[in-house]
């Protein structure tokens, strides 16, 4: 029943898009075909290049109109491409416009949108009207032909056929709406190169902010922690030196107490320095992920089963990102999941390395919910990695991180 209701449910925006979208699809398709045809004819004349430049700049405006229409009626938010940088020179400006991939992809969208618009209008308007005519065919026959109605299988078959076709209308509209969404995502958004540049810029900004925070935290810890401990150690040694003053007999008991205190302060300072340097570069990574990940899992308060198949040794930056990813995920399991057991799997083959962390906790984890997964995904993006989270309510939670073993 749920599947049937989902099949029959068509949002009002999808109906409106199928009806309103036909005039825009016709205008856009005719515009794109006319631009391509006229541009080919004028390509050998002096008017060819100016015409192509003006047409491509207008195509960007049509793409923005269709993006808004898809967003308002179909609920598909398509990211707007970056504005076209226009230099001051006429020749340079024309060259930039002519090589703009967004404008050319918009023209392709307008061409492909034309048949989809016709099919959408036919599904939303022409097909229901035809179904109504087929269902009412016995009535039309009675109205058009006076006398006793003609009996026969034709009237019953038309009614059955009309009902069958009418039941297919919601599915047709939903399918065409999905095709329009996919087409808009594919051709009206930023080009793949532009999107990749945006992702790298965002990841770089995130890394710079994260590095700045780490350095400030390290500076604060060194100033407030290590420096204070070293000052206390220096005072203790100064007191020990005073206890050895030649002007009086040395107090061996007090001297031993001061030496023990200095030893304890030295041990605490070394421990604190080891803790600070651990956050900069884990020493365990010097022996590779094959030893670092089991050691990390051993420190988790939740029992973790480790499965490793590391046939390739990743780049040090990739290994470091994967190590901290595993550390963050295990910390999240201990703090938020309520899990009784977890499983960590790492495999590297074919130029890719994959980390899968699974737990039997309460689930309901997602990117952007405040458990650090969003920042983790942004840091992985800096090394061309992706993070996927599958965590239904009630669990289990499966988080997958995939990265290249080499950086280009």
UniProtKB/TrEMBL annotation:
GO terms for molecular function: kinase activity. SUPFAM superfamilies: ATPase domain of HSP90 chaperone/DNA topoisomerase II/histidine kinase. Pfam families: HATPase_c, HisKA_3, Sensor. The keyword Protein biosynthesis does not apply. Residues 317-407 form the Histidine kinase/HSP90-like ATPase domain. Its EC number is 2.7.13.3. This is histidine kinase. It comes from Streptomyces cinerochromogenes. The lineage of its organism: Bacteria, Bacillati, Actinomycetota, Actinomycetes, Kitasatosporales.
